Amino acid sequence: MIELAFTRISAVGDSGRLLVVGPSLGTSVRALWSAVAGLLDDVEVVGWDLPGHGGGPVSAQAFTIEDLAAAVSSYAGSSAAGRTVYYAGVSLGGAVGLQLALAGQPFAAIGVFASDLRIGQPAGWFERAALVRADGTAAVVAGSRERWFAPGFVDRAPGPADQLLADLPEIDRDSYAFACEALAGHDLTAAAAGGFATPTLLVAGEADEVVTPAAVRATAELTRAPHLVLSGVGHQAPVEAPERTATAIQHLMEDPS
């Protein structure tokens, strides 16, 4: 099983709930989720980092979205300690959430942000993997700044945007490339046609050009899952709109149906 690093982002005494959160490609989970974690009530928040990202160990071999989901599920099952366990993830972390939603246990409900049954085209992911292997992750900083945030967000909130982007040049190039290749192989369209085994909320950013609201709406119709569109938000809702992200997760935990 692939080795992942898990980090406690926030803790509360005697909480009966555990929320596991997943990162977006190119981010550290702490930078992505810290603001949201501080707004959630009565839940311990633990995040996992992609290989070579944040606190994650470097990967020497390829991995799949299924591999990541298996590692997250194993951690959640062994760490629940009688608590109700939930999951939320963004982009690649959301793709892991979709894989988990098909499997059911151990999660009571799952929030999927800025993700879909497939994301982009395989050729694009292979091209990015090749670019990063050749030139390092610094080569994708400018493009990520454009893709990640809604128009005007970087000017309004340069601190949070720069903090999220700051980790990107330090990420291990091979681990990032393996993650791109995992996304190239991610396609749950056929598997999800019958719906999810776990209550799942699909959340889109109104200004997201990577995973558009129309794409999320189509997946919601296919899977009969509820969906939500956050106005004025791009691809990184926990940083762009932490209050609304926290509210969506809080409601999901309180009423998974």
Automatic annotation (TrEMBL):
Residues 26-247 form the AB hydrolase-1 domain. The keyword Lyase does not apply. GO terms for molecular function: hydrolase activity. Keywords: Hydrolase. The keyword Hydrolase applies. It comes from the Bacteria. InterPro entries: AB_hydrolase_1, AB_hydrolase_fold, Carboxylesterase_BioH. PANTHER family: HYDROLASE ALPHA/BETA FOLD FAMILY, PEROXISOMAL MEMBRANE PROTEIN LPX1. This is Alpha/beta fold hydrolase.
